[in-house]
């Protein structure tokens, strides 16, 4: 653990893997606790699980995953489409279940990731290794460049949304309600299981969900195809695509971040978030869906895309 010396002038194009900072021990202990609780609930309480409990568990996992993919990522971070107030409220409430910081912080960090990918100002730069990009960055004090650039980034549109302001104001009680209290209460009341086990199922879902999201920062910047830009680390990852939520076409997403589909393909089972956004547009809950043109995609592939690959 070391103290950070303030850097007078920071070179944001620098891609150094090493920096001195301090460990955020409360976060370290929290993640250790979370993983121990999840492992004990899965293996130590295996006899208490039933397929009905697993279905509810899986449903809450999917709902919180969609709140991140459709809400935090494509709606609020990238403005790929617009959404009516009732949908924004639902996405915000489900997002509390995901428990990945309030929407303002999540979107600001994600915008920094896109604008300064793999430089010192990227909160989870892969130049510091895959563990850092996956979850290590949450256990260390942020680099000065991340803090400085985060302050100067224009996020006025986020604070202009009353739904985000509400969540930010009441985030701590909403976090506990969404991550633990409500999902545990549902399982406790519906399946007549011990309360501690019900809490354990919520913590298991939360841990699983966190890794699901973190894999996009690590695996999808590590290995896979680069059909749209062979010069960047972000790649279309074959492992992440099996969670079916979307976000696996990360090379495409870094090249065309404004596209609501997050992929070239209008209909693909590997990106159900896009189908949901389109479905919601038929009932007027989403509108102004933005897409990259087929010509622009083809041009890009021909110009700097990587040939061949897994897809
Ligand atoms: Zn990325
Ligand atoms: Zn993004």
From TrEMBL:
It holds the Pfam family FA_desaturase. Keywords: Fatty acid biosynthesis, Fatty acid metabolism, Iron, Lipid biosynthesis, Lipid metabolism, Membrane, Metal-binding, Oxidoreductase, Transmembrane, Transmembrane helix. GO terms for molecular function: iron ion binding; stearoyl-CoA 9-desaturase activity. Residues 51-257 form the Fatty acid desaturase domain. The keyword Transit peptide does not apply. It is found in: Membrane. The chain crosses the membrane at residues 23-43, 49-72, 170-188. The keyword Mitochondrion does not apply. Its cofactor is Fe(2+). GO terms for biological process: unsaturated fatty acid biosynthetic process. GO terms for cellular component: endoplasmic reticulum membrane. It is a multi-pass membrane protein. Belongs to the fatty acid desaturase type 1 family. The histidine box domains are involved in binding the catalytic metal ions. This is Stearoyl-CoA desaturase 5. It comes from Galendromus occidentalis (western predatory mite).
């Amino acid at each position: 653990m070391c103290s950070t010396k303030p850097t007078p002038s920071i070179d944001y194009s620098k891609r150094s893997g090493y920096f001195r900072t301090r460990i955020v021990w409360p976060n370290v202990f929290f993640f250790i606790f979370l993983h121990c609780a999840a492992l004990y609930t899965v293996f130590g309480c295996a006899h208490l699980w039933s397929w009905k409990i697993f279905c509810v568990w899986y449903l809450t996992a999917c709902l919180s995953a969609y709140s991140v993919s459709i809400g935090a990522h494509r709606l609020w971070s990238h403005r790929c489409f617009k959404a009516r107030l009732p949908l924004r409220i639902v996405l915000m409430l489900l997002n509390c279940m995901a428990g990945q910081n309030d929407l303002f912080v999540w979107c600001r960090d994600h915008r920094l990731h896109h604008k300064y990918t793999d430089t010192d100002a990227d909160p989870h730069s892969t130049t510091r290794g895959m563990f850092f990009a996956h979850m290590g960055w949450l256990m260390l004090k942020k680099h000065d460049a991340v803090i400085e650039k985060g302050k100067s980034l224009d996020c006025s549109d986020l604070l202009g949304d009353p739904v985000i302001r509400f969540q930010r104001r009441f985030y701590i009680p909403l976090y506990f309600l969404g991550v633990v209290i409500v999902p545990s209460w549902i399982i406790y009341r519906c399946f007549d299981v011990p309360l501690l086990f019900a809490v354990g199922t919520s913590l298991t879902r939360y841990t699983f969900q966190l890794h699901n999201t973190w894999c996009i920062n690590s695996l999808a910047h590590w290995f896979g195809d680069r059909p749209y830009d062979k010069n960047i680390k972000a790649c279309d990852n074959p492992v992440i695509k099996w969670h079916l939520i979307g976000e696996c076409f990360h090379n495409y997403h870094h090249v065309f971040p404004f596209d609501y589909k997050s992929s070239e393909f209008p209909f693909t089972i590997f990106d159900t978030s896009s189908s949901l956004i389109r479905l919601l547009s038929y009932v007027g809950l989403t509108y102004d869906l933005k897409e990259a043109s087929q010509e622009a995609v083809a041009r890009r592939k021909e110009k700097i895309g990587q040939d061949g690959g897994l897809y």
